[in-house]
C-alpha cells in the first residue's frame, strides 16, 4: 500500500528544525521540496543551508561535488500544494500550537498524495489530537527529532490511535534509510521518551544548584566528563548491565536499596523564578566566557559527528 522507496520528500515549515530536516533528506539523496508560510523564513532557510553545506565543504567533511549535489536536490516552493507534489514523505515543522498544527495537517492531508506518510516534528503534542477527523488520520505519525536532526540521529515515532501499523513500519524503514534512528513509542505520554528522561535529570540538576550542593560547572562536569561519556555508547540499562559482573539482574538486586533511598530524596519541581534563571545564567556565562554561541554550536556539532564516526567504526 505505502511506497517502499521514497525519493521525494516535502518539508513544511523551515525554522530551526525544518531546515535541519532538509539537510537529512538532501544528504540521503532525496528530492527535497520545501515550503514555509512566511516567505522570509524560506529565504533564511535557503541561506542557512547554503552556509552550513559550505562550512561542511570547507571543513573537508564533504566534497565540492557532494555540496553541489545536495543543494541541487533542494527546491523552495511558494505554495504548499506545489511543495507537496510527488512527495512520498512529508515532515511538518510548524509552530508548537495544537490549533495551528491541526490546520496545517488538514491542509497537508487535503493536498498531498493520499499514500504519502505525514510525520510531525512536534515535541509535546499527541498525533491522535492533531489528526482527529482527518480523512488521512491513518497516515499520520509523530516523528520527533532531537535538535539538530542532521547531526543527532534519534527520532521518536508515535503513531496515533487511527494510524495504520503498516505505515508505522514504512515510516521507520524510510527514516532509517535516510540515516536516522527511529525509536517507537506504543502510546502518548507528555514529553515522549527523550524529554521525560531529560526533564527528570534537569529537575535534579536545578535542585542541586538551587540548594547549594554544587555549582553549575560541577553539575555540568558530572555529565560532560562523567556519565555523558558512557551515555554516548549505552543507555541507563546498558550501563547497569555492565556495572556488575553479573549484569543488570545482579546490579539492581544488589543496589536496589541505594537506588530507592536516592529516588526518595530527589528534589521537587522547581519554580523557574528570575533569581534561579539568573543564577544558572551566571554559571553558564562563567563556563563559556566570550565565545560566541554560534561557534560553540558548530564545535558541538563537529564533535558529535566525530563520536558518530567512531561509533560506526
Ligand atoms: P520555528 O519557530 O523555528 O519554526 C516554525 C516555522 O513554521 C516558521 O518558519 C514559521 O514561519 C513556519 N510556519 C508557521 N505557520 C506555518 C504554516 N501554516 N505552514 C507552513 N509553515 C508555517 O520552530 P522550530 O523550533 O523549528 O520547531 C518546529 C517544530 O519542531 C515544533 O513542533 C517543535 O516543537 C519541534 N521541535 C523543536 C525542537 C527545537 O529544539 N527547536 C526540537 C525538536 C522538535
Mean pLDDT: 96
**Gap from first CA to last CA:** 36 Å
The fraction of residues in strands falls at: 5-15%
Write down the oligomeric state. Answer: single chain
Poorly predicted runs are none
For the report, how would you describe the main beta sheet? 8 strands, mixed
Helicity range of the residues?
40-55%
Going by helix content, strand content and strand pairing, the class is alpha/beta
How do the SSEs run, as a string of H and E? EHEHHEHEHEHEEHEHHHHHH
Number of helices: 13
Q: Any ligands, ions or cofactors bound here, and which?
A: nicotinamide-adenine-dinucleotide
Adjacency order of strands in the biggest sheet:
3-2-1-4-5-6-7-8
Coarse shape: globular
Query: Rg from C-alpha positions?
Result: 21 Å
Number of strands: 8
Short characterization:
The protein has 313 residues and is α/β, with parallel strands linked by helices. It has helices spanning 16-27, 39-58, 64-73, 80-84, 98-111, 127-130, 165-177, 194-210, 216-231, 236-242, 247-264, 274-288, 293-312; strands at residues 8-12, 31-35, 74-76, 89-92, 117-120, 140-145, 154-159, 181-184.
Amino acid at each position: 500500500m505505502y511506497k517502499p522507496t521514497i525519493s521525494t520528500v516535502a518539508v513544511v515549515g523551515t525554522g530551526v528544525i525544518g531546515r535541519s530536516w532538509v539537510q537529512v533528506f538532501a544528504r540521503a539523496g532525496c528530492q527535497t521540496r520545501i515550503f514555509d508560510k512566511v516567505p522570509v523564513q524560506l529565504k533564511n532557510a535557503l541561506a542557512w543551508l547554503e552556509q552550513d553545506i559550505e562550512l561542511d565543504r570547507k571543513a573537508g567533511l564533504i566534497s565540492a561535488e557532494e555540496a553541489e549535489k545536495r543543494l541541487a536536490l533542494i527546491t523552495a516552493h511558494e505554495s504548499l500544494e506545489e511543495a507537496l507534489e510527488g512527495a512520498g514523505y512529508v515532515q511538518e515543522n510548524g509552530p508548537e500550537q495544537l490549533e495551528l498544527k491541526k490546520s496545517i495537517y488538514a491542509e497537508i492531508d487535503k493536498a498531498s498524495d493520499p499514500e504519502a506518510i505525514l510525520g510531525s516534528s512536534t515535541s509535546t503534542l499527541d498525533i491522535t489530537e492533531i489528526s482527529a477527523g482527518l480523512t488521512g488520520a491513518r497516515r499520520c505519525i509523530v516523528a520527533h527529532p532531537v535538535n539538530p536532526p542532521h547531526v543527532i540521529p534519534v527520532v521518536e515515532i508515535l503513531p496515533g490511535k487511527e494510524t495504520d501499523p503498516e505505515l508505522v513500519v514504512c515510516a521507520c524503514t524510510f527514516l532509517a534509510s535516510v540515516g536516522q534512528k527511529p525509536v517507537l513509542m506504543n502510546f502518548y505520554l507528555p514529553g515522549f521518551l527523550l524529554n521525560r528522561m531529560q526533564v527528570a535529570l534537569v529537575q535534579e540538576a536545578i535542585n542541586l544548584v538551587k540548594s547549594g550542593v554544587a555549582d553549575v560547572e560541577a553539575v555540568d562536569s558530572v555529565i560532560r566528563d562523567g556519565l555523558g561519556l558512557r551515555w554516548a555508547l549505552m543507555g541507563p540499562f546498558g550501563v547497569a548491565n555492565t556495572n556488575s559482573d553479573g549484569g543488570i539482574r545482579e546490579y539492581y538486586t544488589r543496589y536496589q536499596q541505594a537506588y530507592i533511598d536516592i529516588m526518595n530524596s530527589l528534589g521537587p519541581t522547581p519554580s523557574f523564578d528570575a533569581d534561579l534563571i539568573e543564577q544558572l545564567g551566571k554559571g553558564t556565562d562563567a563556563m563559556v566566557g566570550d565565545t560566541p554561541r554560534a561557534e560553540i554550536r558548530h564545535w558541538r556539532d563537529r564533535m558529535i559527528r566525530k563520536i558518530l564516526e567512531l561509533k560506526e567504526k
